[in-house]
Amino acid sequence: MPTDWHLVHYGSRAVGGCGLVMVESTGIGPDHRTTAADLGLSSEDQVAAHARLAGIIRSNGAIPAVQLQCAGRKSLHQVPWQGGGQNSPVPLDEGGWIPWAPSAVPFGGLTVPREMTMADIDVVVEDFEESARLADHAGYDVVEIHAAHGYLLHQFLSPRSNPRSDDYGGSLENRMRLALRVTKPVREAFPADKPAWCHSLVATNIVG
Fold this sequence. Notes:
By secondary structure, the protein is an alpha/beta fold. It has one domain: TIM Barrel (Alpha-Beta Barrel), CATH 3.20.20. The protein has helices at about 5-15, 45-60, 120-140, 150-155, 170-175, 175-190, 200-205, and strands at about 20-25, 65-70, 100, 115, 140-145, 195-200. A four-stranded parallel sheet has the order 1-2-5-6. Strands 3-4 form a two-stranded parallel sheet. The longest helix is centred in the middle third of the chain and has 21 residues, at about 120-140. The chain is globular and about 50 Å long. The N and C termini lie far apart (about 35 Å). Residues about 205-208 have low confidence and may be disordered.
């Protein structure tokens, strides 16, 4: 949940004159975060803390926005200041979990992920939708779907991390399917008078 540190970190950007302040990399579920210390927005319990953060940003003259994130195979690494940092996984016996990904291909030396089933894909779509709904309840005026930088939606888009042979792999149309499936319910769950957009890297998606 957002803490006083986040209030200072993001609030200072608003005080500094930024027009929009994005609360980045906010997990749509506990197992979708890059680390266990990342912010999340997947339950009503987290809404009040996010509402406080959104309120600080707004009261200092900026638009509060939140980036919704699913890390996929880049999930479950140490926070930068512990152990091997972002290049080292968290063992299962130390609170780790098995990440989800398009295939069982790990990212660097991180934990080998589990190839997602169709049911898993449906869960991710539902989790993005719920997180967008909660973002509105928390008072954010913009949501951004994170589909870049090698995280889950980007993993599906890239042929390097997505060798699937079903409806979610192979052709560019198939590899785009999950990102498009996520975008529609997020747009429907977030008020029509508030912007919702998708952050992606199309060029690298196409060329790998």
